[in-house]
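Hi, can you check this record?
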Amino acid sequence: MKSNLSEKILNDLRVELLEEFDRNFERKAFFTKPWPARKHGRKGSLLLVKGGGGLRGSLKATAGESAITFTSSLPYAAIHNEGGKITVTAKMKRFFWAKYYEAQGGITFNIKKRAMANTRKNKALTEDAEFYKSMALMKTGSQITMPERRFIGHAPEVDQAVKRVIDANFNEIETMLKDLLKQPKI
């Protein structure tokens, strides 16, 4: 049977660590270790762009009998967190062609000059289109290496958070005991 103290500590840890892991997305780093930069397209973090921001919101934590379990319902969470290799499939190639045509469709033209308008949006779309085209032209079965962009896991900062939560809980108990002992006896 779990005591109220261990239940409270685990719940406090669940909240604290989930907040810390969420802050990794703001830091664009695993605590103090920055994520690798994107190799294509627009500036910014790959995990925070449109569609990628869902990863941050997908993190859930559950306190059990003696542990806290962190999960994500998104299938690509593990490959982003741990890095690894992805095998290019025919379905992926179709997706990249669709993204290529989507990016190309957003480009605006200057009718008078009969050329693509010289805007930041067009330049970014062109970079995206080139990336998607290069991905679509990869051979089925070839490998894409995904760098590790850890956002959840063990680190010295996690140990520090655990110590803070446990210390705070024991300090609260100590204060309660002192107050209890100060009460006049009847």
Q: What stands out?
A: The chain has a mean pLDDT of 85. The helical segments are 4-27, 53-58, 77-82, 90-105, 120-136, 156-182.
